[in-house]
Design brief:
The chain is an alpha+beta fold. It contains 12 helices and 9 strands.
């Protein structure tokens, strides 16, 4: 997949991010050049006012006015700026910067950072004012000499994410009993296989039995639990996720259909063609052409 050039910010250097694990800047003036589809090596949270078209995984989201955008290094995305000017703030940080395991699990695995979640949250003027205050506090702390600035910056990130979750309540899986716990583990295991980056490391877990063996439970128990919690059997979850990844690869990469088939774990491209047509209604080539790819 194509690497995405980062935002046009004079003070931004990837080496600085890797050294400190965190970077923040204010967005002002003409809109940045559109970013090509791909992944970054860091998490990103943006508060912006303007008109943008965001392609996130296999989703396309058109957003205007003021909004929060959440991106993570596991999901490819692109941003097309449709406004002549933009304003707002952006912070980027590595997973190592988050530091504690509990904080990573509670926040970075929340639905706003997951593939099936919606990464864009519109905010009203009151909500925007509160979040803007957090960004201004982060800028002040980042540029200051407080000796525990990292912890204060983490706390501000926590507050932004919690405010986003409060604005848009989520139906996240709760580990209240055995069924929800095993369902949560299944969903995590399914998602960790994506995105597909090379045919040399193809999809390994593709059936309910594969997941049951990895989780050391009986396949009937796993399927019953997942269906009870989500309303859908395991086979549907797997099919939807593979189809979503296939669409993203067809639309945003130059991989051949055969390479995509092998990357998704299909033994033969013809098997993938039949599978894709069954779940999407069109052949891979027809889907690619409909998206303007040749």
């Amino acid at each position: 997949m194509n690497r995405i050039p980062e935002c046009k910010v004079a003070s931004f250097r990837s080496s600085e991010l890797k050294m400190k694990g965190f970077k923040i800047h204010e967005i002002t003036g003409p809109a940045y050049p559109s970013l090509f589809y791909g992944r970054r090596d860091f998490y990103k949270i943006v508060l912006a006012t303007g008109h943008m078209n965001i392609c996130y995984g296999d989703q396309t989201i058109d957003i205007e006015d003021t909004f929060l955008f959440f991106a993570n290094p596991h999901i490819a995305y692109s941003c097309e700026h449709l406004s002549p000017e933009q304003k707002g703030y952006a912070c980027v940080f590595t997973e190592d910067f988050i530091e504690s395991r509990e904080r990573k699990e509670n926040l970075l695995n929340s639905s706003i950072f997951r593939f099936e979640g919606i990464p864009v949250i519109p905010v009203n003027s009151e909500q925007a004012a509160f979040i803007e205050g957090l960004y201004q506090r982060m800028l002040s702390v980042y540029n200051g000499d407080y000796d525990r600035k990292d912890e204060m910056l983490r706390s501000c990130i926590d507050l932004i994410i919690h405010e986003a979750l409060r604005i848009r309540p989520q139906n996240e899986l709760r580990q209240k009993n055995a069924a929800t716990r095993i369902t949560y583990l299944f969903m995590e295991l399914l998602e960790k296989q994506f995105p597909i980056e090379t045919t040399a490391d193809p999809l390994r877990l593709r059936t309910a039995q594969d997941f049951a063996e990895s989780l050391a439970v009986h396949v009937n128990y796993l399927n019953r639990s997942v269906k009870e919690v989500t309303g859908k059997p395991i086979s549907v979850h797997i099919a939807e996720r593979i189809a979503a990844e296939a669409k993203a690869l067809l639309q945003h990469t130059s991989w051949s259909v055969a390479d995509i088939a092998y990357g998704l774990g299909f033994e033969y491209p013809s098997y993938f063609n039949n599978y894709f047509k069954r779940v999407s209604g069109v052949t891979p080539n027809s889907f690619r052409k409909s998206k303007g790819k040749v």
